[in-house]
Amino acid sequence: MLNFPSDGLMAMNLFAYGTLMDTEIMTQVSGATYRSQKATLLHYVRKTVRGEVYPAIIKQSRGSVEGIVYFDVSLESFDRLDTFEGPLYVRTEVETISNDGERVSTFTYVLTANSAHKLSEDDWNYENFIMNHKQLFQSGYHGYDELT
Length: 148
Description:
Blueprint: E1 11-16, H1 23-30, E2 36-49, E3 55-74, H2 75-85, E4 89-98, E5 103-111, E6 119-123, H3 126-132, H4 134-140, H5 142-147
Antiparallel strand pairs: 1-3, 2-3, 2-4, 2-6, 4-5
């Protein structure tokens, strides 16, 4: 599903399952603020990337990932998000289910197949990230450097 905001530019939805779930980080990275809603992505699992404080997702038939859908994200913001995410991820179209049961077409960032070895067995926890790693991430993640 592609949405067309009032300014005439094409925009799409984004499913965020990791650091971008934090609205402050999303605004810093995307350069804008977007309406959002909690949602679930089926048939994927979220694990911590080895040696990092952020996650990645991969397909797994019985998995599910909780996250947030940001609506009507501009192409300019997606360009910034692509740069921020870097070569570890590929933007992929997926279908999520909102908390009210509605199916929503979105894009999300999936770990590339050739990077699968970088995924740990450890589940990633959003609350733990916010309490213990957010400030370090904001000051040290290379994706921020790519945006300047």
